[in-house]
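Hi Y.,

Following your request, here is the sequence exactly as I used it, all 145 residues.
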Amino acid sequence: MKIKQTRDTLSTVYLDAVKIRNTIFVQGQGVPLSIEIDKNEAHCIHFVLYDDDDSPLATCRLLPNKQKDFVTLQRMAVLDTHQGLGLGCKILQAAENFAKEQGFRKVTLHAQISAYNFYAKNGYTPVGEQFLEAGIEHITVEKFL
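Below is the corresponding structure, written out as C-alpha cells. Let me know if you'd prefer a different format.
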C-alpha cells in the first residue's frame, strides 16, 4: 500500500480522490455534488491510499486555515469494500504527519456521528454540540499534534 498526495486538481491522484468521494458521499449518502465538490478544492492537499495494484481505496483532504496554525481534515472516506481493514487509520496518520511536518499544531474536522468512535480512538476530542451538515448529523472534533 502507498499513499500519494497532491494539490493539483488536474492530477490522477485528485481524480481518484473525487471518484472515492463520489462513491461514498454522493452515491452512498446522497450528498449533493454541488456541496461535495466545493470552492476549496484547489486550496487543499488531497491524499489517496492505493493498494499494491494501484487501486484507490481511501481518501481525505486537508484545508489549512488562513493563519496557517491548524488544518481542517475533510472528505475522509474508505470504500465500503475495504472498511474495517485499518485503511482509515493509515490515511489519517499520513495526513496528521504531513500537517505536523508543515508546522500545523492542530487538526479539526466535522465528524459524522456514525464515525465519531473512529476519531475518538485516534485521539480526537469533541468540541461543541452536534449539528446537521448536508442532512447528516456531525460533531466537531479536534486533535493537537
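The two ends are 24 Å apart (CA to CA).

Thanks again,
Q.
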